[in-house]
C-alpha cells in the first residue's frame, strides 16, 4: 500500500485499516486522519505518537489500560485482538510455573501503576519479557509511564509497517 | 449498581462495563477511571464530558468518527455495536426512499464536516432525525462540531444511566 492510497482513504476506510495500530484505540487513528496527507510511513507514525504525547496523563494511562495484560485474564479468556495474539507468539496461552510468576508480577505492576505491563513482545523472548517486567516493576511511576508509552509507540510502528507493507 | 460498586472496580472491570459509553472509545472510560472515586452518576458523567472537552480538535473529531453512520455502510453491513442497534430502533435497517434521501444527506454531511452525523436517536422519531440532519448540514463547522459532541455526551449520559440502573 503506498501513501497515495493511504491519503485517498475516507475516514471510515482509514479507521477500518488503522483503527488498531494503537490497541483498542480507534479514536487515535480517527484523530490522525485529520492530519492527512502523510508524506511517508515515518510521517504517519509521527502523528500517532504526537497524539499520544498530547493527551492528558489520564488519557495516556487510558491508552495503556486498553492493552491486554500479558498472561492476564484476557489471555485466559481468549479475548485478545488478532494482532495481540500474533505478537505474543506461541505458548503464552498455557499457564506453567513461569507464567504463574509472571501473572503475580503483573498483578503487582497493575496495582502499583494503575495500568497493565505493556511490552512490544514480538521483539523479545519469554525470559526477556519476565526480566523486563521485574526490572520495570520498581521504577518511579512517571518514568514508567513514559517507558510504557514508548512500548505502545513501538508496537504501533510495527503494526503500521505491517499494514503499509514496509520493513519496520 | 451503586457508586460504591463502581468505585471498587479495577480498571479492567471498569473498561469492560463502561468502555462503550462513548461509542468505540474504551480509551475514554479507561482515562475516566483515573478520576475515581465518583460521588454519583452526575459526577461520573461529568468526567466523561470533561475528557472529551479537553481533547484537541482532531481528537474530538476522532470521537465522532468512531460513531456509526446512521443509514450508512455500517448499518448495511450489520456491524453496529449492540448499543447502537438498540438506540436506532426498529425499521432503520431497510433502505426505502426516505432512507436513500437520508443516505444522500449523510454523505454530504460527511464530506462537509469530516465526521458522520451523530444524534441521540433514541430521543427522536425517524422524521425528526431527517429534519435535524437537513438543518445541521449547512451550519458553520465549528458550531456543528460542538453540537455533535453534545449529542455524543447525551448518548453517553443515557448509556451510563442504563448501566448504573438509574433514570436518565
From TrEMBL, chains A, B:
Regions crossing the membrane: none
One GO BP: AMP catabolic process
Chief site of localization: other
Oxo-4-hydroxy-4-carboxy-5-ureidoimidazoline decarboxylase domain segment(s): 7-161
Any one GO molecular-function label of the UniProt entry: 2-oxo-4-hydroxy-4-carboxy-5-ureidoimidazoline decarboxylase activity
This protein's GO CC annotations: peroxisome
Pathway it works in: Purine metabolism; urate degradation; (S)-allantoin from urate: step 3/3
Reaction(s) catalysed (UniProt annotation): 5-hydroxy-2-oxo-4-ureido-2,5-dihydro-1H-imidazole-5-carboxylate + H(+) = (S)-allantoin + CO2
Keyword Lyase part of the UniProt annotation: yes
Pfam families xref list: OHCU_decarbox
Sorted UniProt keywords: Decarboxylase, Lyase, Peroxisome, Purine metabolism
Localization (cell): Peroxisome
Keyword Glycoprotein found: no
EC number(s) stated in the UniProt entry for this protein: 4.1.1.97
InterPro entries attached to this UniProt entry: OHCU_decarboxylase (IPR018020), OHCU_decarboxylase-1 (IPR017580), OHCU_decarboxylase_sf (IPR036778)
Main function: Catalyzes the stereoselective decarboxylation of 2-oxo-4-hydroxy-4-carboxy-5-ureidoimidazoline (OHCU) to (S)-allantoin.
UniProt cross-references to NCBIfam families, sorted A to Z: UHCUDC (TIGR03164)
Family note: Belongs to the OHCU decarboxylase family.
Protein name: 2-oxo-4-hydroxy-4-carboxy-5-ureidoimidazoline decarboxylase
